[in-house]
Each structure stands twice: as C-alpha cells, then as structure tokens.
Amino acid sequence: MSSPDEVLATPLQFLKGVGPRRAADFEHAGLITLEDLLYRFPIRYEDRSRMQSIASLKPGGAAAIAGRVLSCGLRSTRRPGFKIFDAVIDDGTASIRVSWLNQAFLRDVFARGQHVVMFGPVEMRSGGGLQLTNPQYEMLDEEDGETIHTGRIVPVYEKVGSVTPKMQRRLVYDALQRLPPELPDLLPNAVRDRLRLPSRQAALLAAHFPPADAAVDSLNQFATPAQQRLIFEEAFLFQMGVAARRQTVAAERKTVVPRVGDRIRESARSVLPFKLTAGQKDALREIVEDLQKPQPMNRLLQGDVGAGKTIVALLAALVAMENGLQVAFMAPTEILAEQHFVNISRLLQASRFRIALLTGTTARTARRTDLAEVEAGTIHLVIGTHALVEGDVRFHQLGLVIIDEQHRFGVLQRASLRTKGHLPDVLVMTATPIPRTLALTLYGDLDVSVIRDVPPGRVPTRTLAKPESRRDDVYSFVREQLDAGRQAYVVYPLVEESDKVDLKAATEMADHLAQEVFPQYRLGLLHGRMKADAKERVMKAFVAGDIQMLVATTVVEVGVDVSNATVMLVEHAERFGLSQLHQLRGRVGRDRHQSFCFLLYQSPLSADARARLQAMAETTDGFVIAERDLALRGPGDFFGTRQAGLPTFRSIDLVRDRELLETARLEAMSCIGSAAPTPVALQSLLESWETRFRLVRIG
After folding, report:
1. What is the dihedral of CA 543, 547, 550, 556, to 10 degrees?
2. Average pLDDT for 590-608
C-alpha cells in the first residue's frame, strides 16, 4: 500500500481521464502532482443545491433542475458543419428543451429515460417558450451515486489548456478519494490547536466540495475555516523557509569584518557633496552596523525616486574599500551603469580608490586590462551591468555587492554575483516602494532600511489628469517648457511587446509630433524593438540635451537622471498601472525646476482607472501609491514581470491574506526559535522550501 507522501506525489498523468495531452496542459500551468492539483483552489463556488421545478422557471439567471430525458437528438443548422444537440427534460411539473451548441458527441452521452440533473442559464427561445442553453449536466445513475456537478455547492476551476472546469471537478473528486484516511499534518499540533484549525484532510475535502451548510459568500471570499487553514499552511511553510534562511545566515562568518574609525569617518566626509537627510543618516547607520557584524549583511534599501539611495550606497562602499575590500555595483542597464560611473568617479576623484566600468560594450582590450586589475585587487570598485556576473570576472577580495533596481535582475544573476566573493555583504536597492506584505514575503530573509524623505530643495512634481479633449492645451504648455530650455518625455503604452498595431500607432504619433506639432524641436523615438546599441544612442543624446523631446513606447529606463527634463506626458494613462505611472513621474522633478506630469486619458474611464489617476493627482508619496496599487491590481502585476522573484504560491493571495501571512510569520519565527533545528535539518528544510516555492536563494 502506498504511503501518504507517495499518493500526493502521484504524477497527474496517472489519474484516470488525464493522459499525456492533459498532463502537458497541467504541467504548463505548474500542476505536476496530485498534491499540486489539490492545493489549487477553485476560482469561485456556485450554489446549485436548490432544485427548481421546471414549471417555476423564469427567463434570466441560472437554475438547477432534475428530471428524465423524454427525447434527444442531433439536428443540423444552415451553417455548414454546425450542429445542435437537443434534449427534452420532464420533472412531472412541466418539460423544457435543453440545447447544446456544436457538441455532437452528446448523442453518445444522452439516452431516452435517463435521470439527469442540470444547471445552466434559462433563456427565451426564438420561437417562444423557455430553454436551458449549454448547461452543466450529470447523470444520477452513475456508479458512485455522487453528484458533483449539480445539486450541491459546486467548485468552479479555471480552465487549464484543454482541461475544462467540469473535467477538473471530476479529477479533483477522484484525487480526494485516493487520499489515505489519516493524512499526515504539515502543521505542528500546538500551532493547529492554538489557532483552532481543522485537520489537513478535512480542509482539503471542504475546500473543494463544501458541506451543504457552507456559506457561499464566505467560500467566495476564501474565508471558511478549511480555506483559511490551507492558506495558513502554505504561508507557514514559506515563512519557515525564510526563518531557516535567517538561521543559516546567522551561522555564516565573513573572512574580513570591516571596522569604522575616525580615519574612515573623515574619508566619508570628504566625498559628501551635501548634508545627508535624516532618512539617509538612519539608513546609513543601519547598513554600517551590519557591515561591522561577523555575519554577512543581507539588506534591502528602499527609497522613493530621488531619495538619495546612491550616496548612501557609496558611503557603504567607502567603508568596505577603506578596510581593503573590493566592491561590485550592478545596475540593470548600460546607461544607468555609465551614469553611476560618472557620478561616483566625480565624488571619489580626490580619493585613492580606482574605479572601473564593465558593461557589454566595453572594448575587448580595455576589458582584458580591467579584468586583470580587478583580479589583482588594484581596482577597488567595479560598476557594471549583468556583465559583472560573467565567468571571466574574478575579484581579489570581494567584500560588498550593491545591486541597484534589484527587481530587474533574475534571482540567478544575483546569486552568481554573490558567489564571486567569500560571503560578501549584500545591499540591494529599489526605487519601487514595496508594501509591507510584499516586503515580508519577497524579502523576508533581508533586513529592510527605508529612506522616506527627499533631499532639500526638491520641488514636488505637479500631476494633472487631463481628458483627450484638452490635448491642445497640454501641447501649448509643453511648448512653453521647451522654449524655456527644458526637456520633455512623451510615453505611449505598449499593451503587448509583439503588438505591431500599438508600435505602428506610436511611431506614427512620433512622426506627427515631429512634423506637425513640434517641428522646431529635436525629437527622438525609443521603442522595444530597437537594438540595444540604438536605444543607448537615443538615451545618451537625450541625457546630453541633443534631443529635446523623447517619445517612448516602453517605460523609460528606470533610474536615468536627466535633471533638465521637467515634463512627463503619458498618453492613454488609463492603460498604465499605478506603480508604472509613479515610476514614469519619477523621471522628472530631479532638480530645482518645477516639473509637471500630464496624464492624458480617453473617456469613459473604468472605476479602477479613475481610482489610479485620482491617486496620482492626490499624492507623490511612493509608499502610499504602492499600497493603493497592490490593493487595486494585486501582486501578480505589481512588478509586471515574473523575474520580480515572486514565489510561486498555490493558494495565497498577497492582498487578501495579509493578516494570515503576518500570523504565519510570527508562528514560524517562534517555532524555529524554540526548536533550534540542527544544520542538517535546516539544510533539508531550505532545499524543500526552494523546490516547493520555485525559488533560488540570493545567497
């Protein structure tokens, strides 16, 4: 007899009714084993338990009926190849026609005299009378005698390839029947008892096929005890992995532990171009305290656009370099890496430290020379792109890794850079303010520092949402700014990277702006289909001021600093997410000039779009924006890419389940702290954690 673990690990292709094609569809959706299937919640629940008599039916809405098949058959239509299967059902009070469109196979399913249950929309027939159209159906004389599609509260699953919701319902039901009577529980008994959670097996049964007295509203809010238990279970296991990661880091020891004295403080003061804000001072203090610990630092530095994260990172780099260590500073794009190189070189000009820039376009001879010096330790700070993680980059003694706009890098790229030193300190930075729930989940193994203030003298950008009918007024304003010597961005949404229609429209609009609206100014075009070197040329020309207006179809490169740009004009602003709009707005307002962000929209606006534009007009606080964006759009779209590092959760919704996540975090920390697992147990826990949540650790 198979063990419970073996049953749960059964590949779905071995379930009756699956086969190779459906197994491939399931695998594409991340469902490989029976356990994966059982931990995938229905998207909603329908109450099909209240049977109605056919005589009482009225058009509009859906109804559940039970009766016998009086007649059935297939008929042709005027449309070639299109057929309709009709049946007449009688329940003793009346009879009704039931029709399925283009489902000829039903002639082999239905037969006169069968007792059936059906659920579907009630409609008026064109010739008069009522009919059910394309209803769910079930024969009441099936072997198992159970009705799972009608006559009860029914789970509705999201379609997976060729696997319909109805097929999945049957597969899930069959999978539940295979579970052994006593399924081992993944939660400690003390935790289960304290939180009054049902057993694992009872929760799985009730989450898929709820009891008759379950409240459908609670089910659809995923708030029943069974659903809450399964959500908590996943959150608890994830947070146990995060807690275990912290335990392993706490046990690690750096080769060189930096020390900070008067000499280093004076060195830092000599490179500071301005007085630090209170937020920068607090973040720097936390980072420097971490640098002086024997355990390697793992810290996230959050700060809104323009908060001054780079100077804080540079001062941390100075501490490492003054202690004889090398620093790697990785940026997501060449132009951003070059900008960091220019700015940091200027600040460190009077120091004894040597800096190198290493990107994909670095000349071969220069690259060879730089690599030799990096390996010898005579270059102290290397700034670059993903080229830093390539195999031929070897450090003499890498002590600190700084990663800018970290969500733009894949987890493997971050891991590769960290392995180039012996447990170097790691500081990751982001200008995308991250709501607390996401921060606890994405970066639970990182300590977090936040810079909430901005350098003095910065003038908040004014944001104005304008309808399409005010376009000419906006153009007039932009023209005034350009005449005053300023620069402007015009950004178009690209719904899909492959969408030629959008790209063509944006290109035509750029031509229209250049030839008819702003003919006296120099315009540049930036879009996703341009080659990397062409993109770089356009951006450099804009940075240098050779281009006065930049028209872009993609989000303008994160972090590029063009202090002379004072206007951001977003076309079809209703199509952008809130965080995207905030990032775009952050491209202006980077100097003492008053800047403006115009959000041009087309009416009518959806409720969500109106809420987004209203939030943008009301606040420039990125953390407020982030919380609203998460509530409006959910975590899947928060970063816009899978590369963001979001763990693959089966049942957790990061917005809906905030409180459960927090409870799970506290319970996991308590368990790890009290149990003091052995290094072997910790390693085993981490390996299963990474596999289950499709994660690779940063370290």
Report:
1. -20
2. 89
